[in-house]
Amino acid sequence: MFVTPPATRGSRPPDRPGRPDRPGDRAALALLAERARPVAASGTRLLPVAPPLAGLFPDGGLRRGSTVVVAGQPLPAGDAGGDGALSLALALLSAASSAGSWCALVGVDGLGAVAAHDMGIDLGRLAVIPSPGAAWAEAAAAVVDGVDLVVVRPPFAARPAMARRLVARTRERRSVLVVVGRATWPEPPDVLLSVGEMEWDGAGAGEGYLCARRMTVTATGRRSSARPRRFRLWLPAANGGVSGGAGAGPDGADPEGPA
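Request: output the structure for the sequence above.
Response:
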């Protein structure tokens, strides 16, 4: 389900940034939230994640009401390659959507349906608001009312008050908020996932195709997530999903144990 961002509907005076302040815009987002009313019981404390990702979370899944920030690997100047953050954030959706939960992407444009499907995401339970512009926080707050899991990629750094309101709404609605990009989020998350040590497999010495990417993910956070844990993953794996890294245990754990 794709939702057209308010800024693209009709003309708007150039001195007013697009935001869902018109009755029609608010009604469209409210309709999305109503259609995407969660199937999974809100009394369920955890949303599932794919088995290779379970060790990143102290409870083995995504705790309702929590905020997760995914930070990509710093890239050299001029490197246009992905930093791994969006891939990891999308991988968190696969098990929840397959189990019947509605998910939403806010500010994630250019996502291919085939790539999302290969990641294991149920496209029939995915709402997409690709380019909300300056209205990204309002759009995220609206869909939090009606879905279990929201992935948001802010186009600019959130103001502290804006971030706190969105975190509070997520906690109140017992959803899960996943923010892509550490630099855009001023609030300490419940879980911080940091991508590092990425390398692609399959190209050889210039021949062949890139088919899988290995990365190290370090999980830290607050309370029960305070102790760092390091895991090696294939993301994407050769089949397009996520799997444990070479030499890792069945849950994807680094054989040397948590960092």
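The chain has six helices and eleven strands.
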